[in-house]
Amino acid sequence: MKKTRLLAMLLALVLMCSVFAACGGGSGPAATEAPASEPAASGHDLAIGTTGSHLYMYTCGSSESDNFCRRLVYDQLFYIDDFTGEVSSDILASYSWTDDVTLHIELKDGITFSDGTPMTAEDVLFTLQTYVNNSNSEMDWYDMIDYDKSTVDGLSADIVYKETYGPAISTLCSPILSKAFIEAHPDGDDAWWYNPIGSGPYKVEEVQMGVSVKFVKRDDYWNKDARFEADSITIKYYSDTTAEYSDFNSGVIDVMLDITSTQVEQVQSLANAEVVIQSADDVCMVCFNEATVPKEVREAIAYALDINVISDAVLGIFGTPAQSTLAQTMAEFSPGHSYPYDPDHARQVLADAGYSAGEIVLDMVGSSAADQTTLGEMVQAMLGDVGITVNVGTYDFATMLPMLLQGQTDLQRMTTSDGTPQREPLETYSSFVANGTFPAASIPDEAINEALDRGYSTVDPEGRKEAYIEAQQLIFDTFRAIPLYEWNSGYAYNTAKISQIDLTSVQRIDLRFIYLNE
Predict the structure, then answer these.
(1) Cβ-count burial of 165 within 10 angstroms (0-12 exposed, 13-18 middle, 19+ buried)?
(2) pTM for this entry
């Protein structure tokens, strides 16, 4: 099973604003000084604030801020409904598996890019291959496609995979790019920054590098039945939350993305504002180095950790106690796979196994990030309460990663770093397979690995669901991973101007579907 992570995808297309210092600079045009707050947008013009340390402007990646922008400029091949798990597409007339490795797609007729050129199946296949050619990751899921055997014919394509690949559909939630534009504009061309070509309902009108990007609605958008109420959407970068909230409170911006818990409290005191908390589609859990942590100790740990207290201490309003090792938003989620807090049971398990208080000493390696530091402290205190000593080491990422890769820990926090916007179980479970990347998460259990492999190697949605439900049960029964909490993010919007932000098709906020008050 492959570890699938979209890392720095498309050297020519990963358009990071160079002023966003947390990313260490970029290769685009020079940054400009942030201007003073401007008057509030009026009518059908929207202003969106973000304090994200980076903003992938127009391309594909796992970053949520990227999702905000890419759906304005590009149409995706597929969308997955966060509530039902159903697959939909704006640009496909039909799709089907003709065999276990061949996905046949038919584009709708009349789809045009913003430069007026029509979209064809050649654009689709070329886009997917471009993601492979320009990816820094050798484990890119687009590399599972056999491009030599895949074919296109006008609006039709047969996308052929190298093997039966269960995550195929979820990993094709991809923005489709114009082949002609890619070929005409090499890496570093300013057109990628100021005039990217997509088939989506909006196009870029103005870029102030590191400050803001203004998108305007296309008059010639091919889908005349679609409803997009904002004539323009300007996304503004803020270096601190105080300035962002001040502009939100005064009406300079209409929406704040990725708000903090402090901002939640501030917004809740306002008369004309609403806060929405949304899932990152991922679970934070504790995993074990099975070479050093036997089953009885894993069971004791499972019952010694109070996930309600941990979730509240680590994330507060942005944490939800987990119910399984998969997030509740995933179609394959099965409830009832978390452990109740029962320290007496934990002590009894250890006593029955012949352990005395203080005999078990474990190491937990983590990063020095605030949430991981808090988690380490909570784990240390709760396990200490049942007689297990935990030595917690917190390090910078560069120091921590080699230790985890070499298995120099007994306990390891596991989660996907940016959540799983594709809602794909493979992203959660790819580290669990036998001989996986992280020894302290790898599970050398034949039954669990067989279930995970079935979920990976079938394109039947019901077959995948059955396999991953079985995997959740087996992991639960053998105490292989202790689910702690699901982590969330939030946004706020001005109810005096906005009546609704549609979350029914994609739970994550979709800036295309902001409905305005009359």
Answers:
(1) buried
(2) 0.83
